[in-house]
Amino acid sequence: SPPIRKLADLNKPAGTLPTTVSPSGADAQKSNCLRFAGLSFTVKTKKEGTKTILRDLGATVTSGHVLAILGPSGAGKTTLMNCLTLQSFGGSTTGTLELNNKPLTLRMFTSHCAVVTQQDFHWAFLTCREVLTYALELYGSTAAAARKAKVVEILSEMGLTDCADTKVGNQFMRGLS
């Protein structure tokens, strides 16, 4: 397996990044693959003209594997995540971003990917079950019965069945931990 690298080390040219983690045999054909190469993000500044926040990053991750992005404050973790989730703004993103060997589009992203943001933006007064139902209504076009079954399945898989009807809560209103 590839060595663990510091995020600061990831800001070196793509050729110095850890090797691709790929399944073999039949698993490789069933696997989804997210790949980015030559990914850079540049912003305009008043003093320097332009400043490169990310320079020539690249990695490949396949289904069943995790790509960890770790680093100190200001290392570019959030900027990288914004680029990978097609949510970068305030600058210019260059490079290649592919899902299953096809350029990643917003339409592909919304149908194949999901993001858990750094900040929790759930409505505090909804229950866990209501949040999942609402999310499935926004993302899917399946029938109501299928959505309800999917919510039950997710609650079970995540170990949330006992607290399915507990309000989510936030820093001002007690809820899920």
Task: Report on the architecture of this protein.
The chain is of the alpha+beta class. Helices cover 28% and strands 21% of the residues. The relative contact order is 0.13. Residues 1-28 have low confidence and may be disordered. It has helices spanning 7-10, 26-30, 77-84, 106-112, 128-139, 144-157; strands at residues 33-45, 49-62, 92-99, 102-103. It is built from six helices and four strands; from the N terminus they run ααββαββααα. The protein is globular. It has a four-stranded antiparallel sheet, covered by helices on one side. Strand 3 (92-99) and strand 4 (102-103) form a beta hairpin.
Compile the SSE list and pairings.
Blueprint: H1 7-10, H2 26-30, E1 33-45, E2 49-62, H3 77-84, E3 92-99, E4 102-103, H4 106-112, H5 128-139, H6 144-157
Antiparallel strand pairs: 1-2, 1-3, 3-4
Helix pairs in contact: 5-6
Key features?
177 residues, alpha+beta, 6 helices, 28% helix, disordered N terminus
What is the structure about, briefly put?
The chain is α+β, with helices and mostly antiparallel strands and 177 residues long. Helix content is 28%, strand content 21%.
**Order of SSEs:** HHEEHEEHHH
Poorly predicted segments: 1-28
Euclidean distance between termini CA atoms: 35 Å
* Structural Rg: 19 Å
Mean pLDDT over all positions: 82
Q: How would you classify the helix and strand content by structural class?
A: alpha+beta
Tally of DSSP helical segments? 6
